[in-house]
Every structure is written in structure tokens, then in C-alpha cells.
Amino acid sequence: GDNFFRLTDVATVTRAYADPPSEMFRYKGAEAVGLAIGMREGANILDFGAELSALMADLEQRLPIGINVHHVADQPHAVDEAVSHFIQALIEAVVIVLAVSFISLGVRAGLVVSLSIPLVLAITFVVMHAWGFTLQRISLGALIIALGLLVDDAMIAIETMISRLEVGESLGKAASFAWTSIAFPMLTGTLVTVAGFIPIGLNNSAAGEFTFSLFVVIAVSLLVSWVVAVLFAPLLGATLLPAKWDHHDAEPGRVRRTFHRVLRGAMRARWLTILVTVLAFAGAIWGMRFVENQFFPSSDRPELIVDITLPRNASIEATRAEMDRFEEVLADHDDVSFWSSYVGRGAPRFILSFDAGTPGPNIGQIIIQTPGVEARDRLRADLEALARTDFPGTDVFVKLLEI
């Protein structure tokens, strides 16, 4: 007989929304469609942001009336603002170091040290580019840390030249004496300083991967500063310093006399000095127990994250109803710029340290954008008080983004 069966009218296939939905996305309480756009590897996020904004502006003009486009997580803007703040701090640090150099060394010697700073930074930037390290929070922070260290070798070299000029040597001999007498002691000191950051470079954890550029940038900048101090600083000194240098005042000032008295007293009472040092070290170790243990601080970004969790047997409609009640407060709050809400799931991973939770009908998440950090902190206090009083049986957790 016939081994085939003819089946008809088994099912009707239609195109419609899932009912009930498995997850929902909303912008300021209105139904929306979320579009996550990632950057191609190796691209510049600021260029990516500019091109994406132009693309979305063009797209919005061709959308039907009533459909608008909003940025709910503008990472290029956040990166631009964060890097701008660090660059501002870097410029301020450079200016401060230059000012201290001029005040402490004088105009000509200070100028030699000041010229070594942009030279060290320029070579460091070239090495960073060759090794694939970009300008971000950690690498810029490393440059700020290194600024106070990278001028030490140049200052030592110039002070050594000045001391030889004071005894009547020529510029050439004074410059060469800096190399023959202090180059390798300075290298030893530089390597010891670099060694202090080795644990960061050898850390294989996720945090170590995040901070690896701190070790590399500091190590490179300090080693480059030694090269500049022993090769370029004497050359600059021979060019800019006068051929003859008068002796400093032989009579020590009040500060130096006071320091001499303290130093002699500490050397005479050496066992007492050692005891005080040991006690101070022990007190520092004891005091560490009062310092909060936290590898990374909370982010200074203005977003506020609200996790909403209902009992496990709750439906997605019940979760949406609770989130609707919560969002009514956001609509009238002065410290809220806008918000996006996710029902049945959490927000996508829009920054590296953001942990997207497991989807489920009983969970939801709200990402709130505030005007600034102060507004964010005020809003956080208000929402935590609201969660305690108006949402019994619902777990509402208000948190900040972590770095």
C-alpha cells in the first residue's frame, strides 16, 4: 500500500508578537526596540561614535512619523569625557612639575629638566603605539603617576653638571662626568622603582589584565627617562647652561641647619631611631585593617542601575506592572534625565565591567541616566527609601556601575 500520509490543515502560521512575550524593552516607559551596535576591532571609538551619530540622524529622517531614535548608552561620549578628564589631569601634572623645576633649579637648569619631560612623553607614546597600548584610564593614570618620577634622573644629571661647573670644569667635561659617575646608580634606582610595579604586570587575574598597561607604561616611561637623563639632558645642559657657574652660598640656610641637627641626633641615637622606625611600620600594618578593601572603586559615570526581582513564580506581566509603578516615580523626579528598562532580562553588556544577569520572567532592570554624580547620589538615596516602603515582596537593588 501507500506508505505516505497526506496531512492537511495541521497548523496556521501567522506573523505576530509572542504572547506572552519572553522579554520587553522600553524607553521612558514607552515600548521600544533596542539596537546594540558594536565597534569593529581596532577602530577608534570616538570616530565610531561620530559616524554612528551621523548614520542614525540620516536614518531617523527616513523613519515613519512618530518613531524616534534615542541614545540610551552612548559609550563614545562616555569615553571622550573620561579621557578628557584624565588628559586635563595629565596637563595639570605636567604644568606643576615644570613649575617646581623652575622654582627649585632656576631658569636655565629648570629649562633643561622641563625639555626632558615632553621628550620622555613623546618617546613613551611611540612605544605605546608600537606595542598596541591605547590612551585610556589606566594608561593615562600610569603617565600621571610616572610624571613625578621621570624628572628625578634629569634633575640628578643637571645638578651633577652644575656641581662640576662650580669647580671650574668645562661644559663638555661636566656633561661627560654625569655619565661616568651617576648613570648606572641612576639606572639601579630606576629599576628598583619599576620592580615595585612588577606584581601588577605578573597578575594573571581579570583585574590584572585590566591594569597590565599600568605596569608597562610606568616601566617604559621610567626607562626612557633614564635614557633621556644620561644622553639628552647632558647635551641640553651643554647647550643651555652657562660656561661658568658661580658657587652656591657656602653658609647653610635655616632649613638645612635644622635638617643637619635632626640628622645628627638620629645618627647618635641610632637604636632609638631604629625602634621608632619599626614601631611606625608596625603601626602602619595595624592601621591597614581600617582601610576598606576594594580593588576598584565605583565608577564616576552618572548612570544608576536598578535590579528588580519578583518571586520565581511571578509572570512577566507581574514584573512589568511592578516596574511600571517604579517608573512613575522616575517620570517626575528632577534628577532623572531619561531611563531605559528591560523586562524579563537585564541590559546588554554595554561596558566591560557590566555583568548581564540570567534572563527570566521575574526579573527586570532599569538603567537611569542622571545629569551628574551629585544628582545620581541623591536619586540613589531616594530610590532606596522608596524600595523599602513601597515595594514589599519585591527585591529592589539600586547600584552603581563598577570600574
End-to-end Cα distance: 72 Å
Helix segment count? 12
Show unreliable segments.
Answer: none
Instruction: Output the structural class.
Output: alpha+beta
**Strand order in space, largest sheet:** 2-1-4-5-3-6
Structure notes:
With 403 residues, this protein is α+β, with helices and mostly antiparallel strands. It is 58% helix and 8% strand. The protein is built from twelve helices and six strands. The protein has a six-stranded antiparallel beta sheet, covered by helices on one side. Strand 1 and strand 2 form a beta hairpin. Helix 2 packs antiparallel against helix 3 (107-131) and helix 5 (152-166) runs antiparallel to helix 6 (171-195). The protein is elongated. The model has no long low-confidence stretch (mean pLDDT 86).
Question: How would you briefly describe this protein structure?
Answer:
The protein is of the alpha+beta class and 403 residues long.
Write the layout of secondary structure elements.
Blueprint: E1 24-27, E2 30-31, H1 45-61, H2 75-105, H3 107-131, H4 137-150, H5 152-166, H6 171-195, H7 198-201, H8 206-240, H9 254-268, H10 270-287, E3 303-309, H11 316-331, E4 338-343, E5 363-369, H12 373-390, E6 395-400
Antiparallel strand pairs: 1-2, 1-4, 3-5, 3-6, 4-5
Helix pairs in contact: 1-2, 2-3, 2-4, 3-5, 3-8, 4-8, 5-6, 5-8, 6-8
